[in-house]
Structure formats: C-alpha cells, structure tokens
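hey can u check if this looks right to u? its 165 residues, i copy pasted from the old doc so theres a chance i mangled smth
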Amino acid sequence: MLSHLIVLGLLGAPNDGSDIGAVIATPDRTASMLVIQATASRPTSIPLGAAAWPQPYDPGDHAPYAINFADLLDEGEKIAKIEAIKIAPAAVLLGISVDEAPGYGPIIDVAGEKIQLWFLVDQAYWESASFASAGVLLPFTVRVLTDSVPPKRYERTAVLTVRQL
C-alpha cells in the first residue's frame, strides 16, 4: 500500500531525504546521468535519454543500485536532499518497491554525487512470467535538490531491467 501512495504522489519518502552514507553499489549497478542525454528510442512509458543500469536485477536479489549525478553538478556542488522517488505503476503491479528498512533506505553518498537505493520484489512475484526471457524494463524517477545557492533541482529517470538471471 505504501508503494501505491508514493506512486500516486500522495506520500513522500518516510525519511527527510537527506540521509548520507557510503554508496556500495558497484559500477555495473550504477546509472550515470549525463548533461546531454542520448535520444535513443525507449518503450513508450520511458523518457527519451533515460539512463539504464547495466546490470539487470533478478527478482530474488536484494542488492544496492546507484544513480550518479556528478556530470550535472557544478564544481563543489553536492546533492543535499532526495526530494522524491517515483516508482512506475507497472513496477508496483509486479510487486517491486524501493526498500525503506533501516540500513536499506535511499541515501546520498558522502561525496554528494550519487544516491543509492535498494529494490525489493515481493516474493509472491519472483516467478512471474513478466520476468522470464528478456524481462521487463521499468523506469524509476528520482528528484534531487542541490546545496547550491540558490538550490538546483534535477529530476532524472533510470531504467531497471528486471528478469530472471
């Protein structure tokens, strides 16, 4: 239910969006946001130029994924707050959410350039036909606020491929 409210924009992240910690996501689980995004075609619900995580996500996994905003930030500028994480309605229908449990909630890295989140798939959906073969591409949109004066806001979408590995 919590995921449904977040998707509808009726509820924000449970924390204040400014938790800071060490990002441990590996490079293959990091999507990098570029200043000038590619215009490669994507399925209709995914914005043009959305960055993709190179490593697909298996429904039974529980591992960190990161989004790197470094190329968008000016020298000395840092991410100050994660304002919102929007989960695609299709992801919610497939039992996918962003973990908010202590130790797994979204964080900003200590350098202020990346955010990290952990995905969860409800165990009842692990064997879903949607995750067979090529799986499904799902967009996750993150909006961050920087510490510049005045603050800048960036909203970017990253695409997660969820499939049986």
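The longest helix spans residues 2-7.
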